[in-house]
Hints:
Chains A, B: Residues 7-304 form the Prephenate/arogenate dehydrogenase domain. Chains A, B: Pfam families: PDH_C, PDH_N. The structure is a homodimer. Chain A has 13 helices and nine strands. Chain A is an alpha/beta fold. The first copy, chain A, folds into two domains: 8-187, 3-Layer(aba) Sandwich (Rossmann fold), CATH 3.40.50.720; 192-308, Orthogonal Bundle (6-phosphogluconate dehydrogenase C-terminal fold). In chain A, the strands form two sheets. Chain A has a six-stranded parallel beta sheet with strand order 3-2-1-4-5-6, with helices on both faces. A three-stranded mixed beta sheet of chain A has the order 7-8-9, with helices on one face. The radius of gyration of chain A is 21 Å and the shape is elongated. In chain A, 52% of the residues are buried.
Amino acid sequence: MTAFSFNKLVIFGVGLIGGSLARALRVRGSSAREGARVIGVGRSASSVSRALELGVIDAAATLDDEAALAAALDGADIVLIAAPVAQTQALLERIAPHLGSETIVTDAGSTKSDVIAAARAALGARIGQFVPGHPIAGRESSGVDAALPDLYVGRNVVLCPLDENAPASVERIAAMWRATGAVIGEMPAAQHDRVFASVSHLPHVLSFALVDQILASPDAQLKFSFAAGGFRDFTRIAASSPEMWRDVCLANRTALLAELDGYTEVLARLRAAIDAGDGAALETVFARSRAAREAWQERGGKGAAAAIETAPGK
Amino acid sequence: MTAFSFNKLVIFGVGLIGGSLARALRVRGSSAREGARVIGVGRSASSVSRALELGVIDAAATLDDEAALAAALDGADIVLIAAPVAQTQALLERIAPHLGSETIVTDAGSTKSDVIAAARAALGARIGQFVPGHPIAGRESSGVDAALPDLYVGRNVVLCPLDENAPASVERIAAMWRATGAVIGEMPAAQHDRVFASVSHLPHVLSFALVDQILASPDAQLKFSFAAGGFRDFTRIAASSPEMWRDVCLANRTALLAELDGYTEVLARLRAAIDAGDGAALETVFARSRAAREAWQERGGKGAAAAIETAPGK
């Protein structure tokens, strides 16, 4: 962990992601020094009151009180947007009029190309103040009650720096995440979106699709009755938030469609092998998949930090 | 648990499934009475020696010793075939010459229509002595060292009785599995194969396919580096045995292709919704999938026994 201190951090959306950052900086960082304040901003009083109650934030402001919003942003070192990606542009448009020249804005969205486009639209010439980020740390639970000080320990945070970003700004955001125990990776936004379309967004779509297919079949209840461990693991992510995944699918549409089309081709090849009774072809695919899956598991299985060193874009 | 006693049980293939049955009957059943013997049959001496060493079986025979095989089968109450489904017909052809008129044969294969066809070919007019079965109890590990006396507690065992089976024969096999703590369901073989194509075989193919797609992509290592919890759960079953799943795909080809085609149609609809930016359609599918997945989890999540009562065919 590296030293990281701040005077004022403003978090838009104090849920699992934003709340865990606040808790981590309070508990773990040198940021626990006197005077460092975390301000939470929510859509309404009720959405931030629980975060205040839990002591996750020191003060709150709401979007419906322009003066409070201005006061919250005044003199902020860092602003984190930890709201659904579809809200990014609207939030940045509310932030822009009050954005100090020394303030760095970052985000926690699962997609990056669309967030960057939204930031360019909202911030214009001040786009250099926005450092795109993505902490890879979902949990099945959500909301500020699920926030944990050690959520980010050993997890990856991907930054997608812009040409307009000052290196010091990128390093400041990296230092904040490092203080939570996270490991920092960097890559271009387009590559980020391809990678996560493949290893996260596509599997969610595939998992939702399987449950939907079963539901639509005439013997759905019988099928669910006999579903066992394989089904349980495969469909765990189908219990994820429909709104969040709707937004992710639309926000990362281009990369996701490309991955989905590639996947459909793989399935078509496997279908042909099954249809032709080509056991050798099936076994070849299954065996190399198993070997790759096992190698991944052995390397740590949750975004192995060592491998990040080789990531292009660093 | 119901009373179940036997004089001689012969198990072809003493691995996880056959070994766990032997252990369960020894530990749990009234079968632990004096004189009840479990004989293991393997391809070679080495394949059964470990089972003998562990005390899972009382005696062993091998397929390469016809006299020992005849002696093993002589006077057997029950014969269980717990070998890969592709070996069923060859094993039944070896068993047939020594099959006593009072002996009941059953199996533990993941597919049933092909096993029944193999049994009809091998047993001819004596097909009534064969009661097709399927214990739903895989584990990540395999082999007799992984065998557990409580593997079947609370698990489903599906029987697919034939018109030729005497009701007493079916009840005898059901009683054996009940003695292990399992819950018995019955359904026709074609329905069994559809159900497991949907909730087990298809998800395995889909999981292998995702890993294979990533492997074939130019930035495979980067993708694996950032794969996290969703990927881990979704691809856990891609660590399964390539040989076993090759055999299952071929053995259950018809039902699996039908499910695969249905799934491809669901994916095509989701693709169209993503392409059209139709968030409402995506959210509808995701929300009803999540609700169904959560309801399944709440009902017990591993083949809820209560739901079996409603299974057609009982």
